[in-house]
Structures are given as structure tokens and as C-alpha cells.
């Protein structure tokens, strides 16, 4: 793979944009020596770390190309099965891929009606939760996904969810818990799970749950794009999903950008891969996050939170996952859509 020197690029460093400087792509990583490199004059354009979408659902290799075309160089999948599909997607590229494998669900919730959901995903006891985690470890899952539902809504019982989180932690894995109602949020937060994904579209997250998340160092992945698209699915839904994120931010809870991109039959709405992350940025801005906070929520934030220590920043030795855009996204967040070039592990990808 040829060496490339990007000259006169303003680099996002997690706080703002640098003065124009040179960034060297040396094979799949970022280097320091521009000698012998093919030169590209960025002419003052902005260079961002490749985006990380912290909640996607992937079923086909083409979706990884869709992610990359919009600057999403890593997709964190939250329900992919069977194991053979996960294995195939890990090497499909161009975007990188991490997965929870199948989710732990209850017998009567919405997820149990998704076509192809394995029967082994249904978890109703603490013992079954431990077996579920052991199966994910054996399959090589990167983290564990569970579905929290308010009592009576068909999800795993509280003791099973707690066992799921505890068993995953004992085996060195984080847990992501789905929660889309205030009651489900209370249950998810109480487990101490590292991540809670979605926010309620009807009703507010209780103040004590918001405070508990902050105290426990838990992280929210609100997927506002999905919550907005799913409003017709929830009778009586309003704009509470944006207000809930505003409350989490005000309390200092870490927030990551994720979309719930999917083409899954049975989901409340289909969300396009890649392009949807830029709409997620707009909704996070409506919730009060600054452009710098939003850019961090899609780069260094998820990289650190999910233990992806080789990406999320632009510095020598890290993966050359890069997005070159026109304009200044710190001043105008819509500039993230003006993509000039994307590199995935040093490979310049076609946006056709």
C-alpha cells in the first residue's frame, strides 16, 4: 500500500481544528515520515478521524460499503446472527465491524418476532443468562447485547438481566442494554450495564436514573434517528426522545452517536447505513450538544468506551481511518456531509 502525505489539512484533535499541517498515511496506519509519499494538497480542508456508528445492524457486505461512503469507518453491530454471518462480515470491508452476535431477549417482546431470531436468544432465568454469555464468548463476540423491557412488556426478568451483565463483566465483556421506555431504562440502569442504548419516546427518564447513570459512569447511545423514525410505531409518542438526551447531557452522562441503521424486517423503521449518522448529528445538536461534543461522540468517544485503542484520533501509530471534508464542522456541523475522501485502514475508498 503506497504512502500518502496529506498536506495543508486542518486536523480535528478532539477539541477543535489545528492549523494546516501534514498527515502521513503509511500503509494501514498513520506515520510520521512523508519522504517518498504521494502528495495530496488538502488546501485547508478538514481531516477528521473516521466516524464510529455505535449502534448498527448489519446483514450484508454492501452495508459496510454504505457506511464507509459516508465516512463511517467502524460499525458497532448490536444484533447479527448466525455466527457464520458475523464471521463473513468481519473480513468483508471496507468499513471495520464489531458485533454482539444475537441479543438476549424475552419471550414476548418485539424482538422475539424478528424473523430468524434464534430460539437460544430467549433468556428467562439467571442460569440461562450465564449460558447465553458463555455462548457469546465461544463465538468471539466483542460485547454482549441484551433487551430490557418494563415489567409486563415481555423482556427478560430483572434477575436474568443482572446475571447477563455480571457474567459478561466476569468474562471481560461490556454489556449494551436496549431500553426504550422509562421503566426499561430504570431496569437497565440498575444492572450497572456499561451502555444503555435508545431513549424513551414517551415519557422522561427518571431523574434518579439519570443521576445513577452519571454516578456509575454508564454511557448512553440514544439512537435519536431511530426514535424519530419510530414515532408512528408508538401511540401517543411526542418529542420526549430529544428532551431525554438533553437531560442526560445536562447531568454529564457520556453520550455516543449511534443510529440503529438497519434493513431488518420487524424493526419499527428502516434506517439507511452511513447517511443516517449525519442526521443523528443534527438531532444531537437539537438536544443541546455542541459540534465538538458531537464529533467526539462519533470518534474518540466510542473508540475509548468500546476499547478500540487503535482508532478514534489522528496521531501516528493509529489506524489510518480518515474523513476529509470541505468546510469547518466545528463552526457548521453540516460540513460533515461535504465528504471529499475517505480512508479505511489507509485504503482510499470509492464513494460511487
Automatic annotation (TrEMBL):
Protein name (record)? Amidohydrolase family protein
Q: Give the top-rank taxon of the lineage listed in the UniProt record for this protein.
A: Bacteria
Q: InterPro entries given for it? A: Amidohydro-rel, Metal-dep_hydrolase_composite, Metal_Hydrolase, Metallo-dep_Hydrolase
Residues in Amidohydrolase-related domain copies: 46-347
Q: Name one Pfam family in it.
A: Amidohydro_1
Amino acid at each position: 500500500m503506497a504512502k500518502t502525505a496529506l498536506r495543508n489539512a486542518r486536523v480535528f484533535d478532539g477539541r477543535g481544528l489545528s492549523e494546516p499541517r501534514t498527515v502521513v498515511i503509511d500503509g494501514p496506519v498513520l506515520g510520521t515520515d512523508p519522504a517518498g509519499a504521494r502528495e495530496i494538497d488538502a488546501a485547508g480542508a478538514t481531516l477528521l478521524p473516521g466516524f464510529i456508528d455505535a449502534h448498527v445492524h448489519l446483514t450484508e457486505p454492501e452495508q459496510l460499503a454504505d457506511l464507509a461512503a459516508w465516512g463511517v469507518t467502524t460499525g458497532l453491530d448490536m444484533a447479527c446472527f448466525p455466527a457464520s454471518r458475523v464471521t463473513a462480515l468481519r473480513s468483508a470491508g471496507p468499513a471495520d465491524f464489531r458485533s454482539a452476535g444475537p441479543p438476549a431477549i424475552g419471550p414476548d417482546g418485539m424482538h422475539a418476532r424478528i424473523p430468524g431470531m434464534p430460539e437460544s436468544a430467549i433468556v428467562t432465568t439467571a442460569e440461562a443468562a450465564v449460558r447465553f454469555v458463555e455462548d457469546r464468548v465461544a463465538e468471539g463476540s466483542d460485547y454482549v447485547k441484551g433487551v430490557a423491557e418494563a415489567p409486563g412488556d415481555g423482556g427478560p426478568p430483572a434477575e436474568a438481566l443482572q446475571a447477563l451483565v455480571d457474567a459478561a463483566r466476569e468474562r471481560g465483556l461490556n454489556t449494551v442494554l436496549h431500553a426504550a421506555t422509562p421503566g426499561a431504562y430504570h431496569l437497565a440502569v440498575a444492572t450497572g450495564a456499561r451502555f444503555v442504548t435508545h431513549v424513551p419516546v414517551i415519557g422522561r427518564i427518571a431523574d434518579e436514573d439519570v443521576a445513577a447513570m452519571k454516578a456509575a459512569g454508564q454511557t448512553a447511545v440514544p439512537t435519536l434517528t431511530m426514535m424519530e423514525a419510530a414515532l408512528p410505531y408508538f401511540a401517543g409518542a411526542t418529542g420526549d426522545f430529544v428532551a431525554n438526551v438533553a437531560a442526560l447531557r445536562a447531568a454529564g452522562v457520556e453520550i455516543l452517536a449511534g443510529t440503529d441503521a438497519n434493513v431488518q424486517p420487524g424493526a419499527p423503521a428502516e434506517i439507511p447505513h452511513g447517511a443516517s449518522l449525519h442526521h443523528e448529528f443534527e438531532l444531537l445538536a437539537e438536544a443541546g450538544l455542541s459540534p465538538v461534543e458531537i464529533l467526539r461522540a462519533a470518534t474518540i468517544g466510542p473508540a475509548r468506551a468500546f476499547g478500540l485503542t487503535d482508532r478514534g484520533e489522528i496521531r501516528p501509530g493509529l489506524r489510518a481511518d480518515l474523513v476529509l471534508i470541505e468546510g469547518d464542522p466545528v463552526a457548521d456541523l453540516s460540513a460533515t456531509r461535504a465528504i471529499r475522501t475517505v480512508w479505511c485502514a489507509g485504503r482510499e475508498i470509492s464513494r460511487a
